[in-house]
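Reviewers asked in the last cycle whether our approach scales beyond single polypeptides. To address this, we selected a multi-component target totalling 296 residues and predicted its structure end to end. The input consisted of the following lines:
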Amino acid sequence: MENETSLSHKESLQLIEEMIYKAKNSYHESGAGALLWGSVIMFCSAVSYANTWWNIKWLNQVWWLTLVAVVPQIVISIRQGKTQKFKSHTDDAMSGIWISFGIAIFLLSFFTGTLKIGAATPTFFLLLYGIPTFATGYTFRFKAMIIGGIVCWICAVVSIYVPFRTDMALYFAAAFFAWFLPGLMLRNNYLKQKHGNV
Amino acid sequence: MFKELDPILHSQLRLAVMSLLISVKEAEFTFLKEKTGATAGNLSVQIQKLKDAEYIEVQKQFKDNYPQTLCKVTPKGIDAFETYVKALQGYISGNGKP
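The resulting structure, written as structure tokens, was:
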């Protein structure tokens, strides 16, 4: 691109539009984080659901996997930071939302006993799941995540009226619609874009 | 009367750089180079001009032992860009002449 080429007014506006379009299309979320958390929560809830029949005591500890999953999440975040050549206006806001969600989930996990919320625990978790999911979808106008967030809240309401076993199915559904499915869509777009640029 | 177009912005490469930087919070030099298709030397000169006009901030640092140049548009740059776009729109809707 030349620097001093004479531009007509129309060409100037076209150039501005073209560059804004290029910048917007440079950001492609890999979907790895969403897929990771979707898979982990779906796995844990499926095992818990099955265990309501199996009654194997140690299988109740399966939810500790969510703590282990923090490690690959950190790796994903570091890798993303290394490869990303720019920071969008929404990056800090999104980080803030998801970090606060992580802290809230962590606190809720450790204080459910003290709070004595017992049977209402899944409702609280599902309510929390919906907040960052909906906020992310709304920010990026990403319908799959908006729907995912709403599904979490519907599951939260349903969980008030159903037994523990069904709660596990609700966790599964929430994780599928909030993270796994949007994650798959993001991953497909990301791979398409990546191969398109080769 | 039509407003005079800002000569700092009314240049293909500088306008391209400003348009990219307006769309993001901050960007690496390599990102600007890749998107504009300009040579490193030419881009450096134009970035310096935008910096001298205080339209952008340039921060040099190291990332993984490699030098990294980060560019970010300033509030003055945003104002100038908005004024420039409004003036362009005025020209186009006003008389249609280039």
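Chain A touches chain B through 28 residues (CB under 8 Å). We regard this as preliminary and will revisit it once experimental data from Aim 1 are available.
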